[in-house]
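User: Predict the complex with flavin-adenine dinucleotide.
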Amino acid sequence: MAKQEHLELTVEGMTCPSCAKHVEKALRSVDGVQEAEVPGGWESGRATIKVDSTVEAEALSAAVKEAGYSATVKTRKPEGGSISSNGGGSGYDLMVIGGGSGGFAAAIKGAELGYKVAIVEESTIGGTCVNIGCVPSKTLIRSVEAHHMAGHHSFRGIHTTSGQISWPEVMDDKDNLVDEMRQAKYVDVLAGYPEVTYIKGRARLTGKNGVEIDGSSFDSAQDRPFDSAQRKQYAPFRIIIATGAQPWAPPIPGLAEVGYLTSTTALDLKELPKSMLVLGANAVGLELAQIYARAGTYVTVLELLPRIAPFEDEEISAALTGYLEDEGIQIVTGFQTSQVAKQDGRYVLTGMQEGDELTFDAERLLVATGRRPNTANMGLGEAGVRLGKRGEVLVDETLRTDNPFVYAAGDVIGEDMFVYVAAYAGGLAAENALNGAGKIYDANYIARITFTDPQIASAGLTEAQAQEQGYDVKVSTLPMEYVPRALVARDTRGLIKLVVDGETDRLLGAHVLAPEGSEIIQTAVMAIRFGLTVGQMRETIFPYLTNVEGLKLAVIGLEKDVAMLSCCAG
Ligand SMILES: Cc1cc2nc3c(=O)[nH]c(=O)nc-3n(C[C@H](O)[C@H](O)[C@H](O)COP(=O)(O)OP(=O)(O)OC[C@H]3O[C@@H](n4cnc5c(N)ncnc54)[C@H](O)[C@@H]3O)c2cc1C
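Assistant: Here is the predicted structure with flavin-adenine dinucleotide placed in the model:
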């Protein structure tokens, strides 16, 4: 017999006592519904039902809609209140595996929905972003930028000279900020959710809804370490996998033997190297390359594809190449590494570029060739959770895996590896897993940022993608020297490129390369998401002496020569 669950629904549209009867009847008509009631009468706007666990939320909503009302699932619990009451106090309604941003968002949502939640983390609370990703990288970028600006010749209007950067101090400041933000955004936030138990340990699935946590764990709910010889078993009602990803290196001969820096270790180097090779010119590689170059390291970036930032618009890649080279970074593209070795303490990379054999050497080697999901040795296959070619958890549009008890969110699903996407996905997965909310995961409208200086900020389709998809493409490219903000800031590096559907005049894509370009892009994301036309953007007043005004100028550039405009994009 299927397991029984209790659901509470929010019902809209009931205006009289007979409405309550209609809603109850509609709910009882769904296969698998055992009992349905509108307690407290039609004014309560709610219904409670007892169902087989196989009943989908969509079927309930459809039946109520058919009767002329609307209903959404508010809470969904196994019979007996929660697994915790069945499991003698050690069970959970939701077990989230992974204590990063995606896992935290899932756990908090579960608690807000009224469930008993556990979050399991094998390493440092907070996961990648705060400890070894966004936070340390962005604060280092800011530190070296300040140093660079103070001494840089190419910024007209700034006349200071640079001293030596104090690398140990920069690293200490970074570590302090990471500690503070981890405490404020993870440890202290967790303390505000007593319904969430933090379990330190490594989790693996055992069967359909079983989770085994490594015995050396510490269960904060019980406030005592587990017996180290023990492995503890749980049977939560639902599981969310939010185990993130880790740096991945290609199988280049010699690479594994010589060892190398990853983004994690490169963000924690105690001594500033004199020279560094950076393999891979995507966001992580480029950001770290510029950090080290600005701190004083001689950096060579080696990229297999024909251009850096290879998934961005071509004009953006070309312009950024120029700016990085101006700062003294050597950029080598179309380079296929064939061998890595260590000679006299230096890393030596040999490879081919357009038929020529080239060799590069440096004191340090950073491999930044992508990240792969953390799914190994977690019993996923045996538990019926299917994985893709790169080890990513395969999910449907509601983030459910092939095992109906298990959902996944964040980097572990292998796409859009950004922290804001992980957090969005975590919350959505929790709602779907616990309440059968059936919400659709939609990460189509997001900004993608590379925090170099100038920053790459893009949204929607590139010109090439729009053409491939058969649009009648119109393009406007505006050099930043036409943006008054850039002129007064005496930094006119970069461009704004808009991709427009010539038939509907809708904005399809926006590609920005500009100092703090990330601050511009969300306006374009909103325009793309809500189908704004360039006409509507042109009619909207933008503030003068802001970089975002550049978006409007680029729109005007579709029809007019922006050099002939007076003040304020008029
Ligand atoms: C250098 C760098 C810079 C970045 N900069 C940015 C940025 O500026 N902006 C941005 O949006 N994104 C950035 N990112 C990406 C961002 O950090 C990730 O997208 C985000 O942190 C993913 O969150 P998550 O919750 O999916 O995974 P994670 O934060 O990685 O959390 C997963 C957690 O699961 C734990 N875990 C794994 N397996 C198990 C197991 N079996 N049992 C228990 N625990 C387990 C891990 O220890 C980890 O703590 C950056 C990434 C890097 C590497």
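The first strand starts at residue 4 and ends at 12.
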